[in-house]
Design a protein that fits this description.
The protein has a domain of 62 residues. Helices cover 75% and strands 0% of the residues. By secondary structure, it is mainly alpha-helical. The chain has four helices and no strands.
Length: 101
């Protein structure tokens, strides 16, 4: 029983800390920070898959499936944001002798 309370405490502490950190970041920095933290999303996905692999009961399996789906969506969204951000830095002019697609 104590393990459950410890896990809940760690989760609540991580959620509060994450909220406080993100809330204090200026709006203009959100996109670069999120695209730079794609590796964290990948680690979350791996952790969700490990948790799903160790799930025993139907409730644990359901929570694990939801965690994997949300983490996978987070990873995909991070890469989409990164791609859009990198597109902003590409030149719109084609070099001499090349046609734009």
């Amino acid at each position: 029983m104590i393990d459950g309370f410890l896990a809940l405490y760690i989760f609540m502490l991580a959620a509060f800390t994450g909220y406080e950190i993100i809330a204090r970041v200026p709006v203009i920095l959100h996109t670069p920070l999120m695209s730079g933290s794609n590796f964290v999303h990948g680690i979350v996905l791996v952790g969700a898959m490990v948790a799903l692999g160790h799930a025993v009961g139907p409730v644990e399996i359901a929570i694990g499936v939801v965690a994997v789906l949300l983490a996978a969506g987070n990873v995909a969204g991070g890469y989409v944001v990164t791609e859009r951000m990198l597109e902003m830095f590409k030149s719109s002019k084609a070099p001499a002798g090349e046609k734009k697609p």
